[in-house]
Every structure is written in C-alpha cells, then in structure tokens.
Amino acid sequence: MESKQRITVARGDGIGPEIMDATIDIIMGAGARIDLDYIDVGEKVYLSGHSSGITAETWDILRRNKVFLKAPITTPQGGGYKSLNVTIRKTLGLYANVRPAISYDPFIPSKYPKMNLVIIRENEEDLYAGIEHQQTPEVVQCLKLLSRPGCEKIIRYAFEFAKVQGRKKVTCMTKDNIMKMTDGMFHKIFDEIAKDYPELEKEHWIIDIGMAKIADTPQDFDVIVMPNLYGDIASDMTAQIAGSVGLAGSANIGDICAMFEAIHGSAPRRANQNLPNPSGLLHGAILMLLHIGQNNVAEKVHNAWLKTIEDRIVTYDLARKIKELGDTNYKEVGTKQFAEAVISRIGQKPQILKSVEYSKVASIKFEKPKLTNVRDHKMQLVGVDIFLNEGKLNPNELGNRLEKLATPEFRLVMISNRGQLVYPGGFPETFCTDHWRCRFERKTENDIVTREDIRKLLARVEQDNLEWIKLENLFYINGQRSYSLGGGQ
Who contacts 427 (Cβ-Cβ below 8 Å, separation ≥6)? Predict the structure, then answer.
C-alpha cells in the first residue's frame, strides 16, 4: 500500500471554510492518499496580535510538511498589515507561481473557445518586495527589485514546465523599452536560457501590446513567463476571459516547499450561505496532487469536474453568466451540492469537453543548473545621486547652488524631477514636485571617487541648508555604466 502524504491545510476566511471543505471532500472521495494538519492563518491570527497573520508554531508545521493547501484569507484593513500570501511565498522561497487559464466553451461562456495557456509568474521580487517610503510631502517611492538569480530561476522553470507538459512555445513579456535595466535584465536572461531549449518556440513582447494581444487572441499563446506584477495582472485577466476568475487555481512552487490555492479572494459577503464556487480551490488541489505524484487521483478529480460542468450543474456565479446569454439549460446548486455532484461522477469522463490524461505528466522536478555567478564582478564607484526635499527653489536656482557645492571632487551632471531632466537646459513647461535627483559624477574618467568624497559632498549640501533625503551610489560594473540616464539627458 502506498504511503500517505501529510499536507498542511488552512480553511481560511470568508468563503474559505466552505470551499475548502468541499474541495477536501472531493479529493478524498477520489482516493487522495493524504493526511491533513489543519492550521489557523489570516484574519483571526492578525487580530489576536500577530501582525504577520501567522504564528511561529504554524511556520514549523508548514516547513515540516512542505505541501500547503490554502483557502483565501482576509487581511484586515488599516493597521499596516502585510499580505500573508506574499509573506508565505517569500519566506518559503516559492519563486514560481503557476496559473493555467483554460476555456470550457460552450458550457461556460467565453469568447475564446480554444484558449489554453499558462502564466508562469515570478513570485518573490519586483515591486512586490513592498519597499516603500514617503520621501517628501509630495512624493512616495516603491522600489522595483529584480535579481539575476531570481530571473534565472523563474525563466528556467517556465521552459522546463513547457517541456514536461508537452507545450510548444514560451513567451516572455516585459517593459524593457522603458525599464532597460530591471526588465532589460529579465529579457536578456530569457534570451540566454532560451538557447538551451531549441525544441521550443520562443518570443518576446512588450507588456502593453502583449497584454492587448492576449486579450484579443489568447489562443496564440502557450506558456507565458513574466515578472511579478505583470504576471499577477495578466493571470487574473486570462482567468476572467477564459470564463471566470472563480475557476482558476494556482500553484506556488519552490525548491523545498509548495503552496496551492485559488486565485480569488475571501469574499466575506458571500460566506456561510452555501453559495461559493469551490472550483478555483479544487483546481489548486489538482495541481497539488500532480505535485505530490498522485496523478491518477488528479485525473479522476479533473475529469469528474469536467463531466459536472458538461452536465450543466453550476453554482450561482456561473449560473448568472449563463443566464445573461439567455440560456436556461442549467441546474444551479449550492457549494455542498456541487461537491456532491463532482463526487458522484468520479470515474466518469466528459463526452464533449476534452478529458485530461495525467498518467504521463511528470512533476516539474529538474536538476537545478548552477546559477550564474556575478558576485565577483568589479564595481567601480564613479559618482552619486543625491535626492533632495526642496519646495522653494526652481531648477535653475537649485542648479546654480549645487554647481558651487560640487567641487572639488565632482561635477554636477544633471538634476531631474520624477526622472525628467530639468537642469541644465530644462523647459519651463515641465511640472516639478519637491523631489529632486541631483547627479554628481567624477570630473574625468581617470578620477577615483571614494565614499569619503561623497560624505564631504553631503556635508557641503547640509551646510548650504539643503535637505538630502537619500542617495544612490553610481557604479561602473566590469567597465559598463550600471545606472540609467535621466529622461532627456
């Protein structure tokens, strides 16, 4: 007899307990070989005094079991509470977010009957680092952080996923025409890794036109890999145009641990009414069963769900969509009744919708290649960007004062406001806030800049009664400029 896999389960908040109970009933009814450790995370834990929404003891259970099935949770409004989803993903190293988007036309309304794509989203970095600061009374900042190892891991995973799943093409989407260093690195690494997979088609789209293309002809895409924010937006959009966000499941994969969930929220106003659709969480559970090697159970569950949909048995959310099209040939049921309908069809396959066959699908467990080592690259300090909080001076007045402060170690290269060059040679039409980036560079290419030089410059700025709020050192790495120019520079 095969051994059981112990997994961690969180019933969540709002509609979470109802859809989790339905999901567990279905997968256990299909013969899932699992033991369950239930934990509390989310709203109740937040409000009990744990600002992270999770206790130390719960972390121990998650790390021990390594597989986590989680219902949606509620993050309390106000109080500065951080997203528990993001915290879990980053703490456990769940770097790959996998979200399939498939249409089930004609049984669930969709304009794209041939849609069958997967969004592979980087899960730990980008703007979701959540590093934000109020820098001046008028300006706040959010840091966009991408790392070479982070990009390499997610892009490699996307190609391996496509290969194992029998997919044909991998598409990368970035905004590297604007963010040439962050998104530019993501695109560059995509091109590097793509060379290792000659059997797969590969392409790159700028994210704005790429998203428009997805919305217009999603059937042209197969596997799409993206940085965190773009992938979050794109995966919700693709789920909705496929049929409903309420149908989509999600896998969060790391080298050691994994978490599986629905992509929708906790919808507290729909709780405790036997209304919600458990399909999104159920699809997350199917991904979990595949991850732990119980492919036969995943196949039974998925085909039973497809047969239920084909038999026009739906919850209120899908009934409303179908009714809007003037179709009355469906049966609306509650959460529990939907689960019972799926369970009663275990062992059956759909007749019109394409059935799934998971017996030959392997888990995405590949030998991790050694990440590119760039830590020994030579960094040469060549200047500094000093950010000022100044609401009284205009660009020329500020520039004239800083020109005098720059010597003897530096020259003032430019001043920008919200990234746009305003000195020297700025235009009066350019709107300025109280937040200025002032760039000082070495006078000649042969000059050596030290941190002591920067400290002396800051001291002169302070003595001139200018308020500096932050600085960014400017480097050449391996002889190449490693900072962006100002807009218009």
Answer: none
Whether the Cβ atoms of residue 68 and residue 58 lie closer than 8 Å to each other: no
State how beta strands 258-262 and 67-70 pair.
parallel
Tell me which residue of 454, 443, 433, 439 sits closest to 488, measured CA to CA: 439
pLDDT (tens digit per residue) in 339-354: 999 999 999 999 999 9
Peptide linkage before 408 cis (omega within 30 of 0): yes
Distances (CA, A) of 175 to 165, 183, 389, 483: 28, 6, 29, 17
Whether the CB-CB separation of 152 and 193 falls below 8 Å is answered with yes
Dihedral (CA of 41, 71, 118, 239) sign: negative
- Round to whole Å and give the CA distance between 37 and 284: 18
Give the global pTM: 0.92
Q: CA Rg, the chain, in Å? A: 26
Tokens of 141: 């900042």
| DSSP sequence for 286-323 | HHHHHHTT-HHHHHHHHHHHHHHHHTTEE-HHHHHHHH
pLDDT in tens, 240-258: 999 888 899 999 999 999 9
